[in-house]
Amino acid sequence: MAWYSAATRYELQPESDNQQAIRPTQFILHSIAAPWTAKRVYEYWRDSTNLESHFGLGYAGDLGQFIGTETRADANGPANLRPDGTGAVSLESASNLNATDPWTPEQVEQIIALGVWLHERHGIPLRICSTADDAGYGYHRLHSAWNPNGHSCPGDARVRQFRDVIFPGIVARATNTPPPEEDDMTPEQAKQLAAVAAQMNTVYGERRVAPWQYKGTDVTLDAYGYLRGTNADVKALASKVAGLKPELTPEQVQAIADKLAASPVLAESIAELVADKLAARLAD
After folding, report:
1. Exposure of 243 by Cβ count < 10 A (0-12 exposed, 13-18 middle, 19+ buried)?
2. Can you count the helices (H) and strands (E) in the chain?
3. pLDDT tens track, the chain, 284 positions
4. Ramachandran sector of residue 176 (left: φ over 0; alpha: ψ -120 to 50; beta: rest)
């Protein structure tokens, strides 16, 4: 019988003492379709049914353990206990009533930490179960043998989290390697970004100006070279302005600034700086 030290112990009796021993080879995640705390899950198992899971997890990350991980729990159909003595460790987690919401960040962290402990404590291999009997990690609806009623436990949002965040997080932490970065861009946002990039390419083509980049192989434009050239142009212009008589009106000053701002070479900030210098000179 093994108890996870990071979980609050709510031991179910007589199940904890009377149910058969297992050799844990799988970790299966569930959604309980209720916004319950870990303690409330325990009370439900204790008072309302003869079923149970090994762990319960609330929205806030409160984790409870009800049965030792080397004792059978009745949440996974035939995966609870197989003829060879192997079985699955199960976790029920708080969710909305339709089990459609994602796990909270607190739940994600607890699941990853528990998954690592199960790998270290019981040697559960770091892979997703390819069959109902295959050792590894999974979720209730992954295999029909685990889910004979065919319900959506967990929902689609949590299935994506399991594949994109939770399982990679368990592997990364167990092997001390960084997980891949999560893509926080929706497909629609990616489509919009691609459209913006295409429009920028069109604008650059019309102006016959390539995007800014450092000069290198097959690159004809040099960003640093442009900046040096622009600096020289500004200095030359400032020298000419210094010898001008104050004959320009404010409207003419603004017109010069507008033309500079429209240039694909001179940056807007440089145009504004030149306009300020012209205005200051004319005000003297």
Report:
1. exposed
2. 9, 6
3. 799 999 999 999 999 999 999 999 999 999 999 999 999 999 999 999 989 999 999 999 999 999 999 999 998 889 999 999 999 999 999 999 999 999 999 999 999 999 999 999 999 999 999 999 999 999 999 999 998 888 889 999 999 999 999 999 999 999 987 655 655 667 777 677 776 666 665 554 554 444 445 455 555 556 556 667 777 777 777 666 566 555 567 777 677 667 655 665 554 555 555 556 555 655 65
4. left
* Residues 6 or more apart in contact with residue 127 via CB below 8 angstroms: 134, 135, 136, 137
Of 64, 67, 89, 65, the C-alpha closest to 76 is 89
Tokens representing 100 are 């459609």
Token pair belonging to 268: 């807007």
